[in-house]
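Technical note accompanying the year-one report. For the benefit of new consortium partners, we illustrate the data format agreed upon in the data management plan: each record pairs a sequence with a structure-token string. No post-processing was applied to the example shown here.
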Amino acid sequence: MQEFLEFTLGGIAIGMIYAAIALSLVLIWRGTRVLNYSQGGMAMFTTYVAWVVISHTGNYWLGFVLALAAGLVLGAILERTVVRPTEGKSPLNSVIVTIGLLIFLEGLAGIIYGGQYRSFPVAFSVKGLKIGGVALGISTSDLFTAGAVLAAALALALVFRYTAVGLRLRATAFRPEVARLLGVRIGRVLTLGWALAGLFGALAGVLVTPTTFLYPNSMDSIFVLGFTAAVIGGLDSAIGAVTGGVLLGVVLSYAGGYLGSDLVLVYGLVVLALVLMVRPTGLFSAAAARRV
């Protein structure tokens, strides 16, 4: 029973990381109708920013904040300079461009920082928590991760539902011609969507890297699983992204714990294939997602 509890809570903790990546993908999809395959590379690059700052100052929170700021700036710059020229063209153009961005960012990180594995500090203790004599399989750091992702998801849902910015993002995605006629500055809205997605990606990178290592390709597998979580949630819903991330994290935790951890990424791809075959629109349909 204790083993099952540890796998469950541990799965929820890692699922929150997948949820953070899923949120960044949902944000760009809802705002621009583009799937950003370079999201993992953006998260990795901004995590290097945090690592450099922490290494030189010893201040974790300064590195954390500057990584989020770097995510905002990087997202905005990439949208303006690289993604903008593909607007209005074949969707395949955007796919090719974002994959190219991923390769470029990983190569640039290798040139600047080298390819060696680097450890990354944590904000809080990673010592396992206990209730009485029962180990929970999670730490204070895991609780911080869960709280940060839930707060980000709530903020995103509130922005899309209750603010003029969220309305402009949705209008730009679904009816750009009408939005333009109503005075919405489409270019600025698209840039804002990418900037916010860069921030969410940076959050995911800083939160997940202490449990792995930092190197140019460190976010590749995390991105695949975050993409799977977004598909499970339906790609249109912030709540769906978090739900998909948690479900995926728990399922993979059980699979890794009982079947072996060497094939966790394969298990994730199996889950993705099953979802696409059984319910390709995800657990939260587009109509349901637009109400959250």
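Partners are asked to follow this layout when depositing records. Residues 2-32 form the longest helix (31 residues).
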